[in-house]
Amino acid sequence: MTDISLPHKLEKIFDNAIKLYDQKQYHKSLEEIEQVLKKKPEHPESLSLKGLVLLEIDRKEEALEFCRKGLSLGITHFFTWQAYAIYNKKKKNYKESLKCYQRAYEKDQKNLSLLIELSNMQLLTRDFNGYLDSRKKLLKLQPNKKENWFAFSFANHLNKDYDMAIQTIEKYTTSNKIRNQNEMSEIAFYQNELIETSGNYEHCSKHLDKIFPFIKDKMRWKEKKARMLLILKKYVRAERMYYMLLDQNPSMNEYLDGIEQAKQIIPMNTKREPWNFNEKQLKQLNELYSQLQKKYPKSLLINKRILEIKYSQNFKKAFIEYVIPQIKKGIPSMFSNLISFYQNLNIEKNMDRVKIIEQVMFDFAKRLEYVRIGKSDNNENNGNDKNKNEEDSVINKKIEIEESRASLVYVYYFLTQHFDKLHQFEKAFEFLNKAIEHTPTLFDLYAFKGRLYKHVGDFDLASKYVEKTRKLDLADRHINNESTKYFLRNQQTKKGTEIFNIFMKDLQNFPNWRYFQVSWMTNEIGSAHFKKKEYSFALKMFQQTTKNYTAYYDNQLTYHQYCLKEGYLCSLVNLVKITNKIYSYPFYLTAAKGVIEIYLYLHEQGAEFQKELITECEKLEKEINEKKKTDEQYLQLDDDEKKLVEDDDPVGKKLIETKKPLEEALKILQKLENQAEHSLDTHLLSLKVYTKMGNYNSAIEAIQKIRRVDPNNFQFHKLLVEFLLQAKNNKKDLSEKINTQINDLQKELNIQSLSEYNQQFLQKNINKLEHRISAAEVMLLLGENKEKAIEIMMKVDDLEFENKRLLQSCLNILLKLENIDENYANQYREKYSKKFKYSTDFNPQILEIRKEKKIQKQLEFEKQIKQEKEKLKEKEKEHENKNEKEKDKKTEKEDEKEKRKEKK
Question: What is the Cα–Cα distance from 600 to 539, expressed in whole angstroms?
């Protein structure tokens, strides 16, 4: 063990080095440390501090070496352990960092800052018992700081000791005068939340009454009071409270749901499904909403709910009353408000209502067209006004002639969206073209035309129309992002990123995704590169999304400290809830799936394929570096700006170079298993990864989890057969215990042979396209009749063409067939090219024709320019000739004048 004491002069230099490190002046700090180490080369604290400084200036390998050396020489001193803890924290190795902080605190138990850092790390690693212990010590040492009271109460809350958490807050509020009203309001709400979480709802309701004078956010108080009264089954008071809330905002679903539950029409904690209401419920709801409509006639939400409980002619009348004011005002979101009526169309009464919507809107379009061309319904009806039904009279009263021109375009737009939702694309295009012809300046129409082309599988035209929309309003960031997304989905990555970068101001030509943290964008770019089989770029982008979410998780401590300081304890509880599930968010799941799939593919393809990818990456890196040398915009950037745009791995080469792709996939998978355990995708990915790794125990656990969620899943079927086939081939190398587990699993699933099991699965799911495909893939996997398997894959029933996801499913089949044999893929294209006549994947000739037309237009344009140039040349020649003639005339006149002068 080395002596860690320093002479007074060197001690001052060392202290100054620490100050400079805290001020982020790392190079100056390093200079000071070097002075100490010249005279004391084995001073452990200086060595540890040097390691931290080197880490900050990107000398990572040296940093670890110095931190370890400092720790080995000063193992009994807190500073060396603290430095190693900080090093691990910076490297995201939180569990190791926590152990180091614990050892550091053991060496110096009077160090408050060390105890605070330890408590923060305990919270980050979710060591709630340790966090409680550390916060208890801090409260004893510093009882005058409110943060310690809040943190101790919060620590008890996390450990589910609600009584102690409530007592701590009460003790703080009684012993301290809180002058800040906002802080008092937050504390009162937090107290109430603790009481509610403990399950004492009666006390919670009474406590709400007690804290009412201190509450600043009265709406929040009323909402919670109404909810408590509902839980306590005090329905009359709950209903009164919800009516008070409705007076303030009659467009809140939660308030209307509360009134329905308070009147005991809809049971609490049940999903509201209007198509499942019985006659008694419909009658009660009809009475309720009739009263509410009279009281709140302008509420679109109440009028929409009236539609939900009406059928047949009653629905028709209510729909006319609902939709006409919106047609007159020209509300583009008219269809979006009614989207719920297009769900569960397999239920007959739901489909009937959609047909009524279609009929009514079609009638509106006809009437408005007649008015527009100067006709009236009276001329058409030839005087038979007596036969008009009640709905016709309502329409005639509501729609005025002068409003028809503005209204008609929105009716066309509604019908376009209606037919799109029903997958009747021909009619959708018909009405959309009418709308554009009517009002060519309404950019919503071009945006939807892009979406319509996307739905029919033509991303080329889709991206062009959305880009046209963007050009109509260049200041709209949302449309800019939509255009970006469409180009990326058309695999035009360069064009997509260029459009996205328009809003990046000065650094738009040098995007660095580390600083933007735009997860949807990095996912879209990753997917586009993945489709183009550019795996290094795809992996880089997907990994960037995962890094974004890791950064959100890491940054929670900053917000945690802020909440404790300001007294936002309810927000602090929400923060912990969010970060506990942050890796289950859809964007992260998409990126994680992409990363795992690429690493699995690298593992399957082997080392030679990896070398080819690395060679391609090296070429691309060389091109990028060469381009930077001659790029004037890049050369004009200062050093700080260059740091912002600099990327040490621009094409993902370092990620591809990994020698253990399965271990890299496992790192991402473990985060999903911890936080996204309810997602089926997590268990499917687990089964894939553990099968490839040969980790049969974990694979069997994943199988059992999938069986609990969706035992008939088509992806699971194929993965299960792959697992059992691999286990069968490696049976001799497996332990007796694992073989027993696999045999038990096969008995549970009643699997005698894999071929028979697959046939049973196929017969059971004969009417499900994706399940049939899975069974066909298993037939190929087992080496069975190839022709039969291909026949199953290529068959699509007429009824299945009504499926919303059919095009995507058929595109997946097309890709699978391309991997098997290009001839089969061509047959499949030819077979269904008429069904998917707009799809460029099924009709690649569409793109070829467009290219030819584009080339032809370009040639015509060039020819036209050439002709114009020739005409200009001819005009110039004529002009020159004319000028020369005029000159000749002038010279003749001058000569004549001179002759006259001579004669005189």
Answer: 12
CATH number of the structural domain spanning residue 415: 1.25.40.10
The verdict on residue 677 lying in a domain is no
Looking at 109, 129, 164, the residue that finishes a domain is 109
Q: Which of 623, 654, 685 is the last residue of a domain?
A: 654
Q: Is 419 exposed, middle or buried (0-12, 13-18, 19+ CB in 10 A)?
A: buried
Q: How far, in Å, CA of 429 to CA of 890, rounded?
A: 69
Rounded Cα gap, residues 703 and 796, in angstroms: 30
CA distance 472 to 103: 63
Q: Token match 């009147």: residue? A: 263
Long-range pairs for 215-221: beta carbons < 8 A, 24 or more residues apart? 215/185, 215/188, 215/189, 216/181, 216/182, 216/185, 217/185, 219/245, 219/248, 220/189
**DSSP codes, 388-433:** --HHHHHHHHH--GGGHHHHHHHHHHHHHHHHHHTT-HHHHHHHHH
> How many Å apart are CA 544 and CA 527, to the nearest integer?
13
Q: Which residues contact 647 (CB under 8 A, 6 or more apart)?
A: 512, 514
Contacts of 844 (CB under 8 A, 6+ apart): 829
Quickly count: other Cβ atoms within 10 Å of residue 771's Cβ: 19
Determine if the pTM surpasses 0.85.
yes
Instruction: Indicate the DSSP class of residue 343.
Output: S
Is the backbone of residue 751 left (phi > 0), alpha (psi -120 to 50) or beta? Answer: beta
- Other CB atoms within a 10 A radius of the CB of residue 639 amount to 6
Q: What is the pLDDT of residues 287-311, one digit of tens each?
A: 999 999 999 998 989 999 999 998 8
Report the C-alpha dihedral over residues 114, 119, 123, 128, rounded to 10 degrees: 150
Token pair, residue 67, equals: 């931190």
Count of alpha carbons within 13 angstroms of residue 840, beta-carbon side: 15
Each residue of 801-815: pLDDT tens digit?
555 578 888 888 888
Question: At what angle are helices 26-39 and 8-22 packed, to 10 degrees?
Answer: 160
Report the residue count for the chain: 904
Is residue 379 one of the residues assigned to a domain? yes
Domain with 866 in it:
856-904
Q: 47 to each of 5, 21, 263, 325, 772, how far by Cα in Å?
A: 13, 14, 72, 76, 65
| 724 within 8 A of 746, measured Cβ to Cβ | yes
Question: What HEC string does 762-800 produce?
Answer: HHHCCCCHHHHHHHHHHHHHCCCCHHHHHHHHHCCCHHH
Q: What angle do CA 544, 548, 549 make, to 5 degrees?
A: 125
In this prediction, residue 800 carries a pLDDT of 55
Query: How far is Cα 224 from Cα 202, in angstroms, rounded to an integer?
Result: 13
Whole-angstrom distance, CA of residue 793 vs CA of residue 770: 9
Cα angle value 37/41/47 (rounded, 5°):
70
Exposure string for 641-655, b = 16+ CB within 10 A, e = fewer: eeeeeeeeebbbbeb
Our count of domains for the chain comes to 3
CA distances from 451 to 11, 222, 693 (A): 69, 42, 42
Residue 506 pLDDT level (bands cut at 50, 70, 90): low
- Of the candidates 577, 566, 573, the residue with the CA atom closest to the CA atom of residue 185: 566
Instruction: Calculate the CA 827 to chain-centre distance.
Output: 37
